[in-house]
Write a structure and sequence with these properties.
InterPro entries: 4Fe4S_Fe-S-bd, 4Fe4S_Fe_S_CS, Helical_ferredxn
Number of domains: 4
Helix content: 40-55%
Number of strands: 7
Radius of gyration: 22 Å
Largest sheet: 4 strands, parallel
Keywords: Iron, Iron-sulfur, Metal-binding
Pfam family, one: Fer4_8
Protein name: (Fe-S)-binding protein
Structural class: mainly alpha
Length: 448
């Protein structure tokens, strides 16, 4: 079986009972599936994230364990020669939101997110790539090449019920869900900012911050420069074939199974950061799924040992600030006259243990009080909540505890959510605005 991702990390992954019935075909991909030891933690409905789809259905068929069983059947030939287009496999994967919870909360660390990427790539090879997949997956390219047209089209579609219904009929985009609007102007890069007495840092401005929420990137620059760093914006390498297009982590391509396109983005990132890998320059990201995809999933694209070196220099903003705080860095922060805030952790923040840094950074603001929202996935999950057939499931996930908590918050209480999709779900489902931690810290700076 030819795989699209590099599964060599599983070649010697565990021994003996570290596997449970390795399928007959699939090589190392089959081993990645077989790490499931049927602990059934994926059928937990208590604290934690796993598994959002099981939580809303209560049906074992929508758990990680059941998905593993379906893949084992497919790789053992029980679904025929072209098993990846079998309806039974499609049904098993239908409600998977790629939240990464299973990799964190499963005792065997089943990486269903990556397993799903391979599945989608195999399915595309058999059936072709759907139009909606091309639309969502290639967002970084559409937003760069056709930004004005895309912004106009989204605005028009959001204002017109007729166009929204047509888009649902033709593309499967939920008519009831507004699409995120692009900012009037994208993030405006610059050469460098800050005196740099504490050294240089690189700010990786992802697609969502660049095109939809440039204020977040601008706020991060202000915070980092105020903390004593010289901030440079990540740029493509001089010999990049698309020097005017911002760097992209490839996340939208990976989640839609467009592996070759994701590999192109991964190569661009490595080429751009190669000099910084040698220097050891910290590289700071803002969108959890983007930065943490570079740190975790880039290895699956088979791009060499540099991926591991790069991963050691990648930080989310609050991770970097907390690390530097331990080394003597201090932000001059003032009290904010605000009610107790709510903090929602993106699934990737939870999966990679970033929430500790988030809490620590927020504790620096004098008198600032906050509660963490105890919830599973917000349900938006990238394009999942925009898909017509998943719109109801998306809201069902959010309504378990997430959106009720948001609605119950005091009127002027800040809601902090670092994830782009999470903020969109909060606005649409909860009727509230939310902010990124970078914006909150900027507002708390005592600059005068």
């Amino acid at each position: 079986m030819k795989t699209f991702l590099d599964w060599s990390a599983y070649d010697t992954y565990g021994i003996g009972d570290a596997y449970s019935g390795i399928p007959a075909t699939g090589g190392n991909y089959a081993k990645a599936v077989a790490v499931c030891m049927h602990s059934r933690d994926c059928q937990n409905t208590g604290k934690g994230v796993m598994c959002p789809s099981y939580r809303i259905t209560g049906d074992r068929a929508h758990s990680t364990e059941a998905r593993v069983a379906a893949f084992k059947a497919a790789l053992n030939g029980e679904y025929g020669e072209k098993s990846f287009d079998d309806p039974r496999l499609a049904e098993a994967m239908d409600l998977c939101v790629s939240c990464k919870a299973c990799k964190k909360e499963c005792p065997s660390s089943v990486d269903m997110t990556l397993i799903k990427t391979e599945y989608l790539a195999q399915r595309h090879a058999i059936l072709g790539v759907p139009r909606r997949t091309l639309l969502f997956g290639a967002l970084p390219r559409w937003a760069s090449r056709y930004r004005r047209l895309l912004r106009f089209g989204i605005s028009l579609r959001n204002r017109s019920e007729t166009l929204a219904k047509l888009a649902e009929r033709w593309l499967g985009i939920a008519a009831a869900r507004p699409l995120p609007a692009l900012a009037a102007k994208p993030f405006a890069g610059f050469e460098a900012k800050g005196e740099g007495e504490r050294g240089d840092v690189i700010l990786f401005v992802d697609t969502f911050c660049h095109h939809f929420d440039p204020e977040i990137a601008e706020a991060a620059v202000t915070v980092l420069s105020s903390a004593g760093y010289k901030v440079r914006i990540a740029k493509p390498a001089p010999d990049d074939s698309e020097p005017d297009r911002p760097l992209c982590c490839g996340r939208t391509y990976l989640t839609t199974g467009l592996v070759e396109e994701a590999r192109v983005e991964g190569k661009r990132v490595l080429a751009a950061f190669r000099p910084e890998i040698v220097k050891g320059t910290p590289i700071i990201g803002l969108e959890p799924s983007c930065l943490l995809s570079l740190r975790d999933e880039l290895y699956s694209l088979g791009l060499g040992a540099e991926v591991g070196d790069l991963g050691k220099q990648l930080y989310l903003l609050e991770e970097f600030l907390v690390r530097e705080h331990q080394r003597g860095m201090r932000l001059n922060l003032k009290p904010l006259d605000l009610p107790k805030a709510l903090v929602h952790g993106h699934c990737h923040q939870k999966a990679f243990g970033v929430m500790k840094a988030t809490r620590k950074a927020l504790s620096w603001i004098p008198g600032f009080k906050f509660d963490l929202i105890e919830a599973s996935c917000c349900g938006m999950a990238g394009s999942f909540g925009l898909e017509a057939e998943h719109y109801k499931a998306s809201l069902d996930m959010a309504e378990i505890s997430f959106l009720p908590t948001v609605r119950a918050a005091e009127k002027d209480a800040p809601i902090i959510a670092n994830g782009f999709s999470c903020r969109h779900q909060i606005r649409h489902g909860g009727g509230r605005d939310s902010i990124h931690i970078a914006v909150l810290l900027r507002d708390a700076l005592a600059l005068n």
